[in-house]
Write a structure and sequence with these properties.
The chain has helices spanning about 20-25, 45-50, 65-75, 95-105, 130-145, 160-165, 175-185, 210-230; strands at about 5-15, 35-40, 55-60, 80-85, 110-115, 155-160, 190-195. With about 230 residues, the chain is of the alpha/beta class.
Length: about 230
């Protein structure tokens, strides 16, 4: 708890036995609970998460969004004020969590995106296809809804009350962009903060392959344009 606010961290995880303990260890002590959603891991992710002190849930349906939604269902009666999302691959710096929750605590923002694009990136940490995808999605969000984002990064914080209003539904690649589109459409108070980014431990499940990159890009663009057609 910090400033009277209860904060929970949600970490979707698939085969992150080597990196997940480092992520959990780096999370500041003002966090009230760390929830890891195991998303079909075949290694020791579950054991390592429990050993590190996290609450572990299981979501058998493969998908980033599905894992996040499982955790949101779990926390619904726990009276948390702020929800932080971070990946389990140790590419983001969990010790920078104060930067991500700060604007909510100090300036009453609804959603804070940790932007790798305006932060300090280790050389080679972001693949070209990921950088292009971020640029393209950000361009269209600004074009349709006049909200300026530079990144779809997974490291983000949101008021629990605002998260519930968004009625998130995407169960795979479109999770982050869905949140930002809906925040723009509902005119939530949003801001980006620069965060550091390093090469992940292990291989990316999305941008690490051509197939994953194509699937993610198609889904993101589909969500943007279908959302633009809706009122």
């Amino acid at each position: 708890m910090i400033d009277g606010k209860r904060i929970v961290v949600i970490i979707p995880a698939y085969n992150e036995e080597l990196s997940l303990p480092k992520v959990i260890k780096g999370i500041p002590n003002f966090i009230d609970e760390i929830v890891v959603t195991n998303n079909g891991s075949t290694d020791n992710t579950v054991a390592e998460a429990r050993k590190a002190g996290a609450t572990v849930l299981t979501e058998y349906e493969k998908g980033y969004g599905a894992a996040c939604l499982k955790a949101i269902e779990y926390i619904k009666d726990k009276k948390y004020d702020i929800v932080v999302f971070i990946d389990g691959d140790y590419s983001d710096h969990p010790e920078e969590m104060n930067l991500v929750v700060g604007p909510i605590l100090n300036n009453d923002y609804d959603l804070v995106i940790g932007s790798r694009m305006i932060g300090k990136r280790e050389k080679g940490a972001m693949l070209p296809q990921a950088m292009f995808g971020n640029w393209l999605a950000s361009f269209f969000i600004k074009f349709f809804w006049k909200y300026k984002f530079t990144d779809l990064g997974p490291f983000r914080a949101i008021k629990y009350s605002s998260l519930i209003k968004l009625n998130m539904v995407d169960r795979n690649f479109g999770w982050t962009v869905e949140m930002q589109i809906k925040a723009a459409k509902q005119k939530l108070k949003t801001v980006e903060v620069p965060v550091s980014y390093r090469k992940r431990i292990g291989k990316s499940k999305v941008t690490g392959t051509i197939k994953g990159s194509v699937k993610a890009s198609v889904k993101i663009l589909y969500l943007i344009f279908i959302s633009a057609l809706k009122k």
